[in-house]
Write a structure and sequence with these properties.
alpha/beta, Rossmann fold, GMP Synthetase, Chain A, domain 3, four-stranded mixed sheet, 20 helices
Amino acid sequence: MVYSWLNSIVKGYLKYRYSRIEKMYTDPEGIQKDQFNMLLENLKQTHYGLKFDAAKIKDYKGFAEAIPVIEYENIYPYIHKAMMGEDSILWPGKTTHFAKSSGTTNDRSKFIPITEHNLFENHITSSWDAMSILYSVSPDSKIFAGKSLMMIGSLSTFAENPAVTVGDVSAILYSQIPTLGRFVTTPQQEIALLADWEEKLEKIADYCINEDVVNFAGVPTWTIVLFKRILEKTGKKNMLEVWPNLKSYLHGGVNFEPYLSQFKTLIPSDDFLFMEVYNASEGYFAFQDTLNDKSMLLLIDNAIFYEFIPLDAFHQGSRQAIPLWEVETGVQYCIVISTSAGLWRYMPGDTVYFTNVKPYRIKISGRSKHFINVFGEEVMVANTDLALKQTCDLFNVQVNDYTAAPVFMSNEGKGGHEWVIEFLEAPADLHSFANTLDENLRKINSDYDAKRSKDIALQNLTLTAVPKGTFENWLRSKGKMGGQNKVPRLSNKRDTLEEILHFTNQ
């Protein structure tokens, strides 16, 4: 009764605040210019702004001329100063929380500032925007009539300055949510913030079995591991037998298509909602706003100013960015952001393309550094994800994860691509699967097809199937368990692929 009452109250509030979303549809350029002006005034009050004489900047043109486009390595010295307690380095005042993000399996972690303004005006505001959209497209939603299962990271103090807290952005958000939020989420805080992921998964499974979970969020790989453990403990056939009121999943972090068939097996319901989210340590960027289109509405009124670099130009060394109102549909872009976290013209590393500009809707296509383009084939993660899904559907198999890298040309042979795939159950004819995967990739990517034509430049891809649990065990061996740690799916180098093959042989 209490939860039903709460859901009715929140539903009314979300309907009221949906006007924010409607304005994003009707006046995106005006909103972005307002965000730019707010951010610029704050930049002028920082040491970073002083370095680039931001006080003289009057408009976007001056901003683009004065402030360089940067990556993490460029801004890290400023971030470290802020972590050591120095004042107004990248954003006015002190910053006491930093999101620890690896993104891939690289040994070095990134620390992304989470200022109070960024926390409330981006991450929390965007979370409410997402709920507004969800209740708009699905008015019968009852997220606040039960519990939302949260798969989050952990927190710790910064060794060089104990006054600073570091951890997954999800954990920082969870630690700051009000009592109302704790009332409708599960598991309890002591479990949710555990650092050991194996212990965490086991305790979440035990704690949440008897909860009324209606919604969940998290990276697909770890969510699948948790659900399978719950089914083992309960002896149930699927998650609807455990949680009968389960209705929606907010997923992000990786392309969801390779995991969709597994989730449909785990949750056999025709009206279950799978909603795409673009939520990173650097900011909450977008949310799917229609049920029949997986594109996501760019959230433009949330303390972020967006710019974009055409991917082709980026690969040629260009850092010339354009504002949101100059983008075109169908073009691959590297995203550039300026935010109230103090990230100024910063490249988080994601690539996107616009499916629509009225309103602005995007799809994530990959990472600016995660692609294979050794032979001019320009294969992106979006290409390989789709080709793999199509092939798995044909062979009626499911994939846990994969990685691919080039096979470099030598005196003995031509070049090509090598894949390592972890299947739930490998297809009976792996050679036929590899051939079909190659054919599907050729249909999707014309550059790859051209290089494969008559095997002139590239030979058919090769494929190695590794045992179940290989990717998880490899991450564990590197101390990289948890939702922020992912296997890079594509690379121009063979390091990751060789490591996994070596690990498997051991």
